[in-house]
Amino acid sequence: MPTPRSLVDKFCPVRSKRERRKEARPGELLAAALDLFVEKGFAATRSEEVAARAGVSKGTLFLYFPSKEELFKAVIMENLGGRFTEWNAEFEAFEGTTAEMLRYCMNVWWERVGLTKASGLTKLMMSEGGNFPDLAEFYREQVVRPGHDLLRRILQRGIDRGEFAPVDIDHAIYSVIAPMVFLMLWKHSAMVCVDGESALDPEKFLATQAETVLYGLSVRPGDKA
């Protein structure tokens, strides 16, 4: 027996298409906004450009997001800030050593953020945040602080379990953050921050950085010369 939804699709195809289009609009608008913000920056992106790329009118855009600032905040939450619930749940469920957790954290960040267009949002905030203090504070509140808190939990776990030496955690977290920020700048700045004669493999780079954070550069007992 046909369902009500299938009957609508059959006898009112225009209406059903319009309804499906309406349901898809917020996601399409956020995707279009992410593309343009990363390509052009916040200041240079116009709301009508976002609407045009998403295939809707500017008025439709403002039905969902009343200003460009609110649209940008929604993009931040969709791609970065809204993911910390998931990441903290993974922290709670992780059963390996803390060294394994730290490696996993860095690799997952690259797979889920660094490799995606969303990594350009950090570069954008670094270059334009000073001109938009309200957006900069929003980014700090929704992305930077939760990220730092998660890394603190990881390092504190290692110390509490006797796996890591006691360290100044508030400063040690930047040893983990720095290589990830470097990769975002490398990716979104025409790769000018590396020697053009040598290729940079992001996975190998993060693996090397993780080992350096965990063990330093000193020769360890048992290492082969």
From TrEMBL:
Signal peptide: none annotated. GO terms for molecular function: DNA-binding transcription factor activity; transcription cis-regulatory region binding. Pfam families: TetR_C_11, TetR_N. It comes from the Bacteria. Residues 23-83 form the HTH tetR-type domain. The keyword DNA-binding applies. Keywords: DNA-binding, Transcription, Transcription regulation. Residues 46-65 bind DNA. This is Transcriptional regulator, TetR family. It comes from Variovorax paradoxus (strain EPS).
